[in-house]
Every structure is written in C-alpha cells, then in structure tokens.
UniProtKB/TrEMBL annotation:
NCBIfam families: dinitro_DRAG (TIGR02662)
Native species: Desulfurispirillum indicum (strain ATCC BAA-1389 / DSM 22839 / S5)
Protein name in the entry: ADP-ribosyl-(Dinitrogen reductase) hydrolase
Gene Ontology terms for molecular function: ADP-ribosyl-[dinitrogen reductase] hydrolase activity; metal ion binding
Cofactor(s) annotated in UniProt: Mg(2+)
Length: 305
C-alpha cells in the first residue's frame, strides 16, 4: 500500500471521528439555533443534547471501531462476530444508540437474527455511518466491498435506498483514497445521479435529517462546494440536524481528499486520545490484512469448538 494512500486513509478515519465529535454539539439543532448560540461553530467544544466532553465521539465512531476490530480479531469478515461486537458495545451502555440499531441488535440477541426485515422505515443512515472500516479493508480486493457492506448494513438497516447510497459512498471513498482526485469523484457522483435523478442535490435546500437521502444530499453539496477539510466540516456541522453523522461521513471524504495533514491541529489535539490511537492501529491493520469473507457456519463451528 502506497504512502499516499495511507496518508489519505488516516485522514479519512481521523476526519470521520472529528466530524462526529464536532457535530455532536449541533445535532438536532436548526442552522438558526446554531447561529444564535455559536455564531459559526468552528471549534470542538462538546455539549449538545448528549452533553459530550470536547473531543468525545458518539455511536458513529464507536460502532465503526467495533466493526473494524471484529474484522481484525476474527481474521476476516464474519457477520456473527461483527454482531457479537455490536452486542458487547450495546451492553457497555453507549452515550447514544439509534432506535433501528437497537432493534436490530435486540432481535439478534433474542432470536439470533442476522438480517433485519426489509422495511421502508429502515432508510436511515445507521448502516452507512459505520461502514468505513469495510471500505478500508476492501481497498486491496474491492470485489468484497458490496457483499460485506450489504451484510453488515442489513443487520439493522434493510432498505434498497440505503443500499444504493451506501454502496455509492463506498465507490466515492475508494476513488478519493486511491487517487485523491476530486474531479474523478464528482464524475462518479454525477453518473450516479444521471441514473438515479431522485438523488440530485443541485437544488439543495438544507435537508439535514438522518434519512439517508438527506445525508447524501447534505454531504455531497457541502463536500464538492468546499476547498478544504476545515471548510467542509464547518459547513456540515453548522447545517445542524443529524450533524454528527453527516459531519463524520463528510469527514471521510474530505480527509481522504485533503489528507491527514490538512486537518486543523486544534481539532486533532482535541480528539479523544484513546480513540485517535485506535484509529491509527486500525488504519494500519485494515489496509494490510488480506481481505477474507468468512462464512457464518464456519465461524459458528469455530466459536463452539
Ligand atoms: Mg451519533
């Protein structure tokens, strides 16, 4: 793996956690409420409806790290192992957990169900928000990206709109990690919108909810319209709504494009140190480890035997 790819990958993973930590402050607020309280929020200050400490991350980063660690510890992607990791995470009484995520994990605990029922109400961004480790892991062998993504997403979020958009984010992430070419990324997104005009964001009106179509529009609008990591994150955070998830995913794209050195030092210093350490370790491991899809039965045999 080239040095540039590593720099961009680390930028993306740290950028993701920084977007999460910063967006937690403005989650569920309107742009007007944010402005009257903070002017333009440009610092990691904590607070928000969850009352986070400055630099503390939320479920987005925690679930991603859980997923990444399951892959590393399991010697490959195994959905039962990923599911067990999420159960452990839920038992740790996380600061936040989405209702669709909670239901999916509970159904697994009670019935062993690894795939939630397909539902029009599962078009939230909860599968997407934790998918970055899969993109990083599959970079060396991209044929595994779609099947691993769909399996881990459907554990809690089984919806074709969420599938389409999550896979698209993966393609854009891969393009930026491998090439650092913003125009190439824009071409991918433009082609996607020609095929699926309902996702057009050319008349973006400030949609900012956790509905994955809003997440897509919000991030693409601000990412392609900005010229730095800092500008991208400030714009998405000050858009409010599902600000932590939206800024986290925007942080992946911006961190990949502009690289780890483009992240403002004042933000990097604020990020929870244990989280930053885990991100460094996982970035190295996920880029290096061979990409293996383990089947569920073999994993279960190994666990019982
Ligand atoms: Mg969150």
């Amino acid at each position: 793996m080239g040095k540039m790819v590593h720099t961009r990958a680390l930028g993306a993973y740290l950028g993701f956690a920084i977007g999460d930590a910063m967006g937690a402050t403005t989650e569920f607020m309107t742009p007007r409420e944010i402005e009257s309280r903070y002017g333009t929020l440009k610092q990691i200050v904590g607070g928000g409806w969850l009352g986070v400490k400055p630099g503390q991350v939320t479920d987005d980063t925690q679930m991603s790290l859980s997923l990444g660690q399951s892959i590393i510890d399991g010697g490959g992607f195994s959905l039962p192992r990923v599911a067990d990791g999420f159960v452990q995470w839920m038992r740790s009484k996380p600061i936040d957990i989405g209702s669709t995520v909670r239901r999916g994990i509970r159904e697994y605990m009670l019935q062993g169900q690894l795939e939630s029922a397909e539902s029009e109400f599962s078009a939230g961004n909860g599968g997407l928000m934790r998918n970055f480790p899969i993109a990083l892991y599959c970079l060396k062998d991209w044929q595994h990206f779609a099947p691993m993504t769909l399996r881990q997403c459907h554990f809690t979020h089984n919806n074709f709109i969420a599938d389409e958009i999550t896979l698209m984010f993966g393609e854009v992430t891969r393009c930026l990690l491998e090439t650092g070419d913003k125009l190439a990324a824009l071409k991918l997104v433009s082609r996607f919108i020609i095929e699926h005009p309902k996702y057009s964001y050319s008349r973006y009106k400030g949609e900012n909810s956790g509905y994955i179509v809003h997440t897509f529009k919000c991030i693409m609008h601000h990412f392609f319209d900005s010229t730095s990591f800092e500008e991208t994150i400030i714009r998405v955070v000050n858009q409010g709504g599902d600000a932590d998830t939206n800024a986290a995913i925007a942080g992946i794209l911006a961190g990949a494009l502009y690289g780890v050195d483009s992240i403002p030092r004042r933000w990097r210093k604020k990020l929870d140190r244990a989280i930053a350490h885990e991100i460094h370790l996982q970035t190295d491991a996920l880029l290096e480890l061979p990409c293996v899809m383990l089947d569920d039965a073999r994993t279960a045999d190994r666990a019982s035997g």
